[in-house]
TrEMBL record:
Residue intervals of the EGF-like domain: 458-497
Composition bias type Polar residues, residue spans: 295-310
Gene that this polypeptide is encoded by: Tmem8a
Keywords: Cell membrane, Disulfide bond, EGF-like domain, Membrane, Transmembrane, Transmembrane helix
Chief location bin: membrane
Family of this protein: Belongs to the TMEM8 family.
Region Disordered: start-end pairs: 278-310
Species of origin: Jacana jacana (Wattled jacana)
Coiled coil: none
GO cellular component: plasma membrane
Protein name (Swiss-Prot/TrEMBL): TMM8A factor
Length: 735
């Protein structure tokens, strides 16, 4: 045999600590047909700085769709079927880099996905730029070894093959046709080179992760052995591997035969119904099948179906796939939402999910039994959702499994008339919904009964749109799109339905009130600024108080939310007002000339607006203006002190009762903002930050100019004369 090796690689990605599915880095590969060996090369590395510590990286594998993972141990929505993902751990300890190999023999052809992430994210809120995070990188490469000339086993035709040695197993493949109800594989005349009965192991099917359903038979000392499969995958190549268990130098000759048991589907009347729509407008020709006195096509088809139901192994129902949006599909039944279900043969619906872009959402199947259509109280409609091939023996078994897939069972009855199934990240394939009517006292009781079941099936990016406490986000890895839920207000789980750590409504209201009303502490600073004639500064504080209040009212994760304008606009205005408030306060304390102060006000505000547009979370957007303003203030104070030959500010009362308390409040506020905020205590630690910063401004604002008198509203309202002041000559005149 001719083996061909191929290599596939993708660029490395920076790993993140896990808090939701968007933190997992996804790698998407496609394994070609006739692959006999798959090898993953997993490379993990970290930075060399002191901030890098030992770390454990978790890697998940899955065939057909992204892995469904649950690192946080949260609950999934009800009616959801979840299979644990196949995962391994890679540890980065003293070594800067770790290389791991994962081998998969006879892998299934098609899409394979790898997801990697770091442990659970810490609850402390990190200020960007204050600390340097350690970079953890991960890269996945794929090597495949495939047969360029894999022998084809034709159905019903014996094929003789030779196994040269145990080190070189024999690989063949057979194509499974559509409507194959069963398959039988036989080994005949299995003899060694010494004309003795052989010892071989036969493996049917390919490996799929996290679950693999390969069928294995071992033939020891027998000339013939066989294996029967129910519901093999339709319209797919089935790979068969035969290994010799004998001596190293002994060859084995075998004869292989594969036969299929066909399933005769019941004919559908879809096109006949289309034709019957125009019967009232079309005049039938004499002697035609639709002439008067002869049954119409639809009537004749219905009577034929009724009389020949026993000869059919299934009844097809036509389904139309309607694409709505990205990872959003609705399945519509042409014959109406109600499906007739009987006990003689299963009713089959095809749900097409094989486009390669459907595996990133959630498949939802809902069944609703029409109670008036079933007269038997002990009758049950059993359903099964499976991939690759349908379950055709619902009346004989209830395990809902095919040859290489474990399906998902459903049932509706008079006591429970509705059932729902949610399949997270369904694998790329043709999916089938099989329904059949069963009676507990025997199938003979159900032969004359037909149930009506309303079927709703659709593919959605996020089930229930992640609920009221989650946000559905569309994620992308190169050209592949998939969806995930980002939860808030303490809710968790795949669809944000786990309320184990959820905040109560009272807690949400309290958080909103604290974060918004704490901004009212700017009122004393505004009053002090107006009283001391710092009107520009008072305007900036008013702007900051207003937008900080409504930004935090809009930023709440729960139901206590109010947004007066776009969220991004509110956030930008809040960040801008906060930094500009610090900027104008420190410049006001420097007591520079007015013209220079206002020039610095405008120039600094423009530069701050530009830097916030580049990156709002960067700590230097706040620290940079603060440090630069402090340099200006210290230089101005030194200049005033040298000029007056006295410490500036000169009054000890100014230092003790104003400057030191204001500086202390500002320092405590920065410490709380930088080191104490977590996701759990954010609503009260950030409120403390609001109150401390606003209070410090009221203490730090300098006194008014000496030539400025207090606001004399009473004199201006009562007196009939004005007091004019000449600032330069300090002369007063009464007019």
């Amino acid at each position: 045999s001719l083996y061909v090796s191929e290599y596939f690689s993708q660029s490395a990605q920076k790993l993140s600590f896990y808090s939701w599915y968007g933190n997992a880095k996804l790698f998407h590969f496609r394994v070609p047909e006739d692959t006999v060996l798959l090898r993953w090369l997993l490379q993990a590395s970290r930075g060399k700085g002191p901030e890098c510590t030992n770390m454990e990286i978790t890697v998940h594998f899955r065939y057909g769709a992204p892995p469904v993972i649950n690192p946080l141990g949260t609950r999934f929505p009800s009616n959801t079927t979840v299979h644990p993902s196949y995962s391994i751990s890679i540890t980065l300890s003293s070594a800067v880099q770790n290389t791991t190999f994962v081998n998969v023999t006879t892998p299934a052809a098609g899409d394979w996905f790898i997801a990697a992430h770091l442990p659970e994210a810490a609850s402390r809120i990190e200020v960007k730029g204050f600390s340097i995070p350690c970079p953890y990188m991960f890269q996945a490469d794929m090597f495949v070894l495939r047969l360029a000339d894999m022998p084809v086993l034709e159905p019903g035709v014996p094929k003789a093959q030779t196994i040269i040695s145990p080190a070189k197993p024999l690989h063949v493949k057979v194509f499974v046709p559509k409507h194959a109800a069963g398959m039988r594989f036989e080994l005949r005349n299995c003899l060694t080179s010494e004309q003795k009965a052989c010892a071989v192991r036969v493996v049917l099917g390919s490996i799929t992760l996290p679950q693999s359903f390969q069928k294995i038979i071992t033939c020891l000392g027998r000339l013939n052995c066989s294996l029967a499969l129910d519901s093999p995958p339709w319209e797919k190549w089935l790979q068969i591997m035969v290994e010799s268990l004998g001596a190293a130098n002994a060859s084995v000759s075998v004869e292989m035969l594969a036969t299929f048991r066909a399933c005769r589907p019941g004919s559908t009347s879809t096109f006949l119904n289309f034709n019957s729509l125009n019967q009232s407008q079309t005049v039938p020709k004499p002697g035609s099948t639709g002439a008067a006195g002869s049954p119409t096509p639809s009537t004749r088809g219905a009577s034929s179906n009724t009389s020949n139901q026993k000869s059919f192994c299934l009844q097809n129902q036509p389904v139309v796939r309607e694409d709505l949006d990205v990872v959003s599909v609705r399945y519509r039944l042409l014959n109406g939402p109600s499906v007739p279900v009987n006990s003689l043969s299963p009713t089959l619906l095809l749900l097409n999910l094989n486009t390669g872009m459907d595996s990133g959402g959630s498949l939802v199947v809902n069944l609703l039994l029409n109670k008036t259509s079933v007269n038997l109280a002990n009758a049950t409609v059993v359903a099964c959702v499976s991939a690759a091939s349908p379950v055709l023996s619902l009346n004989a078994t209830h395990n809902c499994s095919t040859a290489f897939f474990q399906g998902y069972p459903l049932s509706v009855s008079m006591s429970s008339a509705e059932a729902t199934l949610i399949v997270l990240y369904p694998q790329t394939d043709d999916w089938f919904l099989s329904l059949q009517l069963l009676c507990l006292k025997g199938q003979g009781e159900c032969n004359a009964t037909e149930a009506k079941v309303t079927v709703f099936a659709y593919l959605t990016p996020c089930f229930n749109d992640c609920g009221p406490y989650g946000q559905c986000s569309l994620l992308r890895r190169h050209g592949y799109l998939y969806a995930g839920c980002s939860c808030k207000a303490g809710w968790g789980g795949w669809s944000c339905t786990d309320d184990t750590k959820a905040q109560s409504v009272g807690t949400q209201n309290l958080a909103t009130l604290l974060l918004t009303l704490s901004n009212l502490m700017f009122l004393p600073a505004i009053v002090v600024a107006v009283y001391r004639y710092y009107l520009v500064e008072a305007s900036v504080y008013t702007y900051t108080m207003f937008f900080s209040t409504f930004y935090h009212a809009c930023d709440q994760p729960g139901i206590a939310v109010m947004c007066i304008m776009d969220y991004d606009t509110l956030q930008y205005c809040d960040f801008l007002g906060s930094v500009v408030s610090i900027w104008v306060t420190i410049l006001c304390m420097s007591r520079v000339k007015k013209i220079l102060k206002y020039v610095l006000f405008i120039l600094g505000t423009l530069l701050i607006a530009m830097s916030l547009q580049l990156d709002r979370r960067e700590v230097w957007n706040m620290m940079g203006p603060c440090l630069f303003a402090l340099v200006i203030m210290i230089a101005a104070w030194v200049y005033h002190g040298v000029k007056r030959r006295h410490c500036y500010p000169p009054s000890w009362k100014r230092w003790v009762f104003y400057l030191l308390p204001g500086i202390t409040l500002a320092f405590i506020a920065m410490s709380v903002y930088t080191f104490m905020e977590t996701n759990e205590n954010y609503y009260y630690t950030h409120s403390i930050w609001h109150m401390l910063v606003a209070s410090s401004v009221a203490f730090l604002l300098p006194p008014r100019d000496k030539h400025k008198k207090p606001w004399a509203w009473s004199q201006k309202l009562i007196c009939r004369y004005r007091i004019c002041q000449n600032d330069r000559e300090e002369l007063y005149a009464v007019t």
